[in-house]
Amino acid sequence: MIRIRAGVVLLALVILAAAQAAPGEAGEWSDKVAVGRPAEQVISSWPDLARAAARATIEQYGRPEEVGKDSLVWYANGPWKRTLVHRRAWPHYTFMRDKDYLQNVIGYVVPKDKLDALTRFDKRLDVDQASAEISARSDREGLNFLALNLADEIIRGKRTVEEARDFQKQITRLAAAGKSSGYMNGFLFDVRNDASPHPWGRH
């Protein structure tokens, strides 16, 4: 009996030690996900603008599904397939500097012959043909709506790259002056976040 009890105690100690050494303990970093840590605690050390973007997104869409050291992630939030708030801004390409912390993703099949045009329009657009996704990145959701609406118009041939870029600057200046635009309030085209990666999945 004494030997059996000693064996049970030894087994319990081994299990306890293994659990304490295992990754993913509450409050520890497991891979890229902060297990057991609230988003507010994680973003407390982020740059001011990134932290502001994270707080605004939490206020609008609630707690993120994933809390990582360098990003927060929401899935199927509002009109978006996925939303990310990043700790660091992308390299600066356009007139918007140091503010591109918010990334919004939708399902969209971009034709291969339109990839170059989208890159010339706004390098903060990112196309993933394998996943049938396109995303925009800036400092707020309205600007991402604007970029994606104009990307759709370029793809459909409604505007040239130059026309879309000029219109984007015009609407952005008006927004800074307090004027709203339908281009920044939602999508002006049908969004299918379950879009197939094959060209025939969109039409």
Word description of this protein:
The protein has one domain. It has seven helices and eight strands. It has helices at residues 2-21, 39-43, 48-61, 115-121, 141-156, 161-176, 182-185; strands at 29-30, 33-34, 66-67, 71-75, 82-86, 102-107, 126-128, 133-138. A hairpin with a 6-residue loop joins β4 (71-75) and β5. α4 (115-121) packs parallel to α6 (161-176) and α5 packs antiparallel against α6 (161-176). It is globular.
Q: Which properties best describe this structure?
A:
203 residues; alpha+beta; 6-stranded antiparallel beta sheet; 7 helices; disordered C terminus
Strand order of the largest sheet: 3-4-5-6-8-7
Total beta-strand segments? 8
Q: How far is the N terminus from the C terminus?
A: 73 Å
Binned, the helix content reads 40-55%
Shape: globular
Strand content: 15-25%
Low-confidence stretches are 1-35, 199-203
What is the element string, with H for helices and E for strands? HEEHHEEEEHEEHHH
Number of helices: 7
Helix/strand-derived category reads alpha+beta
Please state the CA-atom Rg, rounded to the nearest Å: 22 Å
Mean pLDDT: 82
Largest sheet: 6 strands, antiparallel
The overall number of domains is 1
Lay out the secondary structure:
Elements: H1 2-21, E1 29-30, E2 33-34, H2 39-43, H3 48-61, E3 66-67, E4 71-75, E5 82-86, E6 102-107, H4 115-121, E7 126-128, E8 133-138, H5 141-156, H6 161-176, H7 182-185
Antiparallel strand pairs: 1-2, 3-4, 4-5, 5-6, 6-8, 7-8
Helix pairs in contact: 4-6, 5-6
Summarize the structure.
With 203 residues, the chain is of the alpha+beta class.
